[in-house]
């Protein structure tokens, strides 16, 4: 799941840069949810440990989409 974000610019370029979103990431144990979250937040892969409970993060993503 986390490997799918190796080219995140193509995924995020379709989002409006002025709009706020609430996103929920659901999945099975050890599916890569935290990896996806940290990939979006830090723009790099981070070694993670199993999450107890849940994570909440505020992420600001700047896109340079032109329409």
From TrEMBL:
It comes from the Eukaryota. Keywords: GTP-binding, Magnesium, Metal-binding, Nucleotide-binding. Mg(2+) binds at residues 34, 51. The keyword Metal-binding applies. InterPro entries: P-loop_NTPase (IPR027417), Small_GTPase_ARF (IPR024156), Small_GTPase_ARF/SAR (IPR006689). Signal peptide: none annotated. GTP binds at residues 27-34. Pfam families: Arf. GO terms for molecular function: GTP binding; GTPase activity; metal ion binding. This is ADP-ribosylation factor 4. It comes from Spermophilus dauricus (Daurian ground squirrel).
């Amino acid at each position: 799941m986390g490997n799918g974000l190796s080219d995140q610019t193509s995924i995020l370029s379709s989002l409006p840069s002025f709009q706020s979103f609430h996103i929920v990431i659901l999945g099975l144990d050890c599916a890569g949810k935290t990896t996806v979250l940290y990939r979006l937040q830090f723009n790099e892969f981070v070694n993670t440990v199993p999450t107890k409970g849940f994570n909440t993060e505020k992420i600001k993503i700047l896109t340079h989409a032109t329409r």
